[in-house]
């Protein structure tokens, strides 16, 4: 691994030397050499013609930073002593040519004119320039030699790198093959065997054993699967043994449910028939006791009048009880027409049926905007009539009764509230009041049969809702119930 890193670093260093360092140095040296030649040509031309225009190449070379002096300063950072010496020699030779020939000749021509420069001076300048050119060429040749050496080293390290990569690839392939063989022998084959056993068990063959093969972890997993298979076999046996018991229990439940439905039908039929058949003898009892009271009232002693009054009152209450029981048994049994019912109209009809009680008590019945629901209109009228009637019946003697009906949408249902300012209902009796024949007060204090709210509960549940007592934040009673919205029922 360390050898690979060393090869990679050498490869990068030689590539940088070839493509960056030596390439840049040779390019700059060639440029400086060309400027030196152009400067020498410009000086000789100026010596022959005296035309300042011919000095432009010399002036550009003097102004440009690209010179052998600059290259010599750069080479000092490379650490190559021969390159530093060669660059410095080229810079010194160029400086001597400039100081000992170029500058004096240009000054002589500017002062004394063309022809003032002697042949000896021209020959001396040529010798100086030849020295500068030779030093520059020596430096450039040395740079090219260094670049050639770097190219050779780059080629060598490239081959070494390719060989190293080849060795690494072959080693990786060999390692991969070895890993595959090891994984196949020690992991994949045991897992395949375990998977085949698990599939056999999951397909229903619980008697198929799961063999524990492979290394420790896979063998432990196979042992867990085998224990699970044994546990499943035990559970299946238990389930098989209890299946007959469950089937028998289901059959008994089915029979009991059917018996319960038949019993409910019989009870409803009995309640209807009993209440209907009792109407006629009760009417006779009530009629004759009332005639007896009218004809012989006051003719007998006070106790006889009291007995007759008891008989008349009992007959009336029995008639009312039978009528209420008959109405209770008809809910959900006598199918009426299901229509869109405007609850505001249903409330108005119920209030109209209670007009005498409302006028007598001075009650005030109000309501918010009420929705339209799907249902049997007579039952919903009966619902409002019972709720408003209860509010009037159980009013507080110290104030005039007020009843307010409101509604709000809650999800897919309408939640309605009948709120009054009566005597209220103790929270502990909130569920009891909906049980049939349950009374919270003596019959001589508040008249009634105890069927009113139970009938309301049956009507609401028949329409798919529920009814409950909500503890109000003030005086009175708050009865709330839900009815499915018309659009939900129609869909």
TrEMBL record:
GO terms for cellular component: plasma membrane. Its EC number is 2.7.13.3. It is found in: Cell membrane. The lineage of its organism: Bacteria, Bacillati, Actinomycetota, Actinomycetes, Micrococcales. SUPFAM superfamilies: ATPase domain of HSP90 chaperone/DNA topoisomerase II/histidine kinase (SSF55874), HAMP domain-like (SSF158472), Homodimeric domain of signal transducing histidine kinase (SSF47384). Pfam families: CHASE3 (PF05227), HAMP (PF00672), HATPase_c (PF02518), HisKA (PF00512). Residues 185-237 form the HAMP domain. InterPro entries: CHASE3, HAMP_dom, HATPase_C_sf, HATPase_dom, His_kinase_dom, HisK_dim/P_dom, HisK_dim/P_sf, Sensor_kinase/Photoreceptor. Keywords: Kinase, Membrane, Phosphoprotein, Transferase, Transmembrane, Transmembrane helix, Two-component regulatory system. It comes from Cellulomonas humilata. GO terms for molecular function: phosphorelay sensor kinase activity. Residues 273-487 form the Histidine kinase domain. It is an enzyme of class 2 (transferase). This is histidine kinase.
């Amino acid at each position: 691994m360390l050898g690979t890193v060393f090869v990679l670093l050498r490869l990068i260093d030689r590539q940088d030397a070839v493509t960056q360092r030596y390439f840049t140095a040779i390019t700059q040296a060639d440029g400086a050499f060309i400027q030196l030649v152009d400067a020498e040509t410009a000086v000789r031309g100026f010596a022959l013609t005296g035309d300042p225009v011919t000095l432009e190449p010399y002036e550009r070379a003097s102004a440009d930073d690209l010179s052998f002096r600059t290259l010599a300063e750069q080479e000092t950072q490379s650490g190559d002593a021969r390159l530093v010496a060669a660059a410095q020699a080229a810079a010194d030779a160029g400086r001597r040519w400039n100081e000992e020939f170029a500058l004096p000749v240009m000054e002589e021509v500017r002062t004394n004119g063309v022809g003032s420069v002697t042949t000896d001076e021209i020959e001396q300048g040529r010798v100086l320039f030849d020295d500068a050119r030779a030093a520059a060429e020596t430096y450039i040749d040395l740079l090219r030699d260094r670049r050639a050496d770097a190219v050779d080293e780059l080629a060598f390290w490239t081959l070494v790198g390719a060989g190293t990569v080849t060795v690494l690839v072959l080693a990786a392939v060999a390692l991969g093959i070895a890993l595959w063989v090891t994984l196949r022998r020690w992991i994949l084959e045991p897992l395949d065997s375990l998977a085949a056993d698990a599939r056999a068990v999951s397909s229903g063959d619980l008697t198929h054993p799961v063999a524990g093969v492979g290394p420790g972890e896979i063998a432990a997993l196979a042992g867990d699967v085998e224990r699970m298979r044994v546990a499943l076999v035990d559970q299946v046996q238990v389930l098989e043994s209890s299946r007959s018991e469950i089937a028998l229990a289901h059959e008994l439940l089915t029979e009991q449910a059917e018996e319960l439905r038949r019993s409910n039908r019989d009870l409803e039929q009995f309640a209807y028939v009993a209440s209907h058949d009792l109407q006629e003898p009760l009417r006779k009892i009530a009629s004759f006791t009332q005639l007896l009271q009218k004809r012989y009232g006051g003719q007998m002693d006070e106790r006889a009048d009291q007995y007759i009054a008891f008989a008349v009152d009992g007959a009336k209450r029995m008639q009312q009880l039978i009528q209420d029981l008959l109405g209770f048994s008809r809910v959900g049994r006598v199918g009426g027409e299901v229509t869109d019912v405007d609850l505001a109209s249903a409330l108005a009809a119920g209030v109209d049926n209670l007009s005498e009680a409302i006028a007598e008590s001075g009650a005030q019945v109000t309501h918010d905007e009420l929705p339209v629901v799907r249902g049997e209109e007579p039952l919903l009228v009966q619902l409002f009539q019972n709720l408003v009637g209860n509010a009037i019946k159980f009013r507080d003697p110290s104030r005039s009764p007020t009843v307010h009906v409101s509604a709000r949408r809650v999800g897919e249902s309408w939640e309605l509230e009948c709120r009054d300012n009566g005597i209220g209902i103790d929270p502990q009796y909130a569920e009891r009041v909906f049980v049939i024949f349950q009374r919270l007060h003596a019959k001589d204090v508040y008249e009634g049969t105890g069927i009113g709210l139970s009938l309301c509960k049956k009507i609401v549940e028949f329409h798919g809702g529920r009814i409950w007592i909500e503890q109000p934040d003030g005086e009175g009673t708050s009865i709330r119930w839900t009815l499915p919205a018309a659009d939900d029922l129609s869909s």
